[in-house]
Amino acid sequence: MSDKTHIPQTEPFRWEGIPLLAYKEESGSHFKSITRQVLFDDGEHFDTQLRYFEIAPGGHSTLERHDHAHSVMVIRGAGSALVGGDVFKLALRDLVRVPPGTWHQFRATGGEPLGFLCLVRRERDKPRVPTKEELAELRADPKVGGFIRA
Ligand code: MN
To answer: For residue 140, how far is its CA from the centre of ligand 1 (angstroms)?
Structure first.
């Protein structure tokens, strides 16, 4: 991780020396067309990481939950999200809170990528995807069932 005090943007939504990574290292969880950049990861001074995720048009994040929370700000494009039982539209600079233990998924629904900053604890548990039974429960709510991709 860079210890530079200024990290310029080199092109829109890309920063000097910050690698463009796959969304997740592990395979097997269902997601589509996402990149990840870790913007801040200074373990000496902070217990948090700030990441930038970008979902290509038509793509989506994994439907998952975990014991850690997310604080999200949309900084590019538009989309929709599921958090718990709520499905809502996302506009530029909207904020999203994902409390611990809450099912969540993001989708890019516009013509450009959906890009968002996501703040997390550095030490955190691994995301979990729904079991068949949990998926059936989620799908029992038509609003949620119509939204999720799994
Ligand atoms: Mn998550």
So the answer is: 22
